[in-house]
Amino acid sequence: QKEVEQDPGPLSVPEGAIVSLNCTYSNSAFQYFMWYRQYSRKGPELLMYTYSSGNKEDGRFTAQVDKSSKYISLFIRDSQPSDSATYLCAMSGPYNQGGKLIFGQGTELSVKP
Amino acid sequence: EADIYQTPRYLVIGTGKKITLECSQTMGHDKMYWYQQDPGMELHLIHYSYGVNSTEKGDLSSESTVSRIRTEHFPLTLESARPSHTSQYLCASSGPGHKSEKLFFGSGTQLSVL
């Protein structure tokens, strides 16, 4: 069983829609939770970073962590065609693992104009 | 914007060849990593380094080797490439302390071994 599960999609939405991306995990020791965005033929770039439980908002993006359910989410409001990419969840812990992250397999998102 | 560079971007070679994938960063980061990514699959850590002359193997077994002679440079070498080595190789770096989970990735090298 994988430590991190992520629906690979693909997910197709119209421009302006609210997008919800999710990951579940099995290791209750994870403390650091991240979302990376990867455009085609590019490396991933960090989008959101959360330590422990709670919500974090940055512009149109909101990250949520529910440690009791071992479930994390990324919400994108007013989605744009430029949001079309693969979104990877990643996590580590319990202590600072120095960049040794466990990744989900990514969800491919397409936002149609 | 992150300054981490990988060369070549694409490489097609024959079986048995020795190859080196280059990775350099200009951010002065002590920590550097190599991840492997296959289509539709998770990134897997194959090597990491926490500083000069320090290298460790990651969770995914790999026949590749790495070296860290200079802070900014973290090359990956395959002594004898095989078709099973065909994959995307991503180099990354991160800063100290609580910033170390925040990885900066290069654009990757897509390796095809025929």
SSE diagram, text form:
The complex is a heterodimer of chains A (about 110) and B (about 110).
Chain A: E1 4-6, E2 11-14, E3 19-25, E4 32-38, E5 45-51, E6 54-58, E7 61-66, E8 71-76, E9 85-92, E10 102-103, E11 107-112
Parallel strand pairs in A: 2-11
Antiparallel strand pairs in A: 1-3, 3-8, 4-5, 4-9, 6-7, 7-8, 9-10, 9-11
Chain B: E1 4-7, E2 10-13, E3 19-25, E4 31-37, E5 43-51, E6 54-57, E7 65-66, E8 76-78, E9 87-94, E10 104-105, E11 109-113
Parallel strand pairs in B: 2-11
Antiparallel strand pairs in B: 1-3, 3-8, 4-5, 4-9, 5-6, 7-8, 9-10, 9-11
Describe the structure.
The complex is a heterodimer of chains A (113) and B (114). Chain A is globular and about 40 Å long. Helix content of chain A is 0%, strand content 54%. Chain A contains no helices and eleven strands. With 113 residues, chain A is mainly beta. Chain A has strands at 4-6, 11-14, 19-25, 32-38, 45-51, 54-58, 61-66, 71-76, 85-92, 102-103, 107-112. Chain B has 114 residues and is mainly beta. Chain B has strands at residues 4-7, 10-13, 19-25, 31-37, 43-51, 54-57, 65-66, 76-78, 87-94, 104-105, 109-113. In chain B, strands 2, 4, 5, 6, 9, 10 and 11 form a seven-stranded mixed beta sheet that branches. A four-stranded antiparallel beta sheet of chain B has the order 1-3-8-7, with no helix packed on it. Helix content of chain B is 0%, strand content 48%. Chain B has no helices and eleven strands. In chain B, a hairpin with a 2-residue loop joins strand 5 (43-51) and strand 6. The chains are: A mainly beta (113), B mainly beta (114). Chains A and B meet through strand 4, strand 5, strand 9 and strand 10 of A and strand 5, strand 9 and strand 10 of B.
